[in-house]
Amino acid sequence: xxxxxxxxxxxxxxxxxxxxxxxxxxxxxxxxxxxxxxxxxxxxxxxxxxxxxxxxxxxxxxxxxxxxxxxxxxxxxxxxxxxxxxxxxxxxxxxxxxxxxxxxxxxxxxxx
Length: 112
Known about the structure:
Methane Monooxygenase Hydroxylase, Chain G, domain 1, 70% helix
């Protein structure tokens, strides 16, 4: 995940939406998310080791299920922050035509 500068409250509030600069993740949230992703990365390494060591398939699948759940929860955290920050800010600036279709698309993809 790429680190992104947070937009500050300044005269730049009237600038058009710039998706590459937008992030509603506070530093504390970023660190928590990075820690969570590090744990997920460790889970994936553990699954690879289980496969190499020919562990019981059900045990491997159980770990895969846990990892998928952890990744989904991390994604939900980012999605919630996106809605609370980026989407809300864009709507306040009158840019809902840009962000609402994008939000609908990502929610649909996330639910698959």
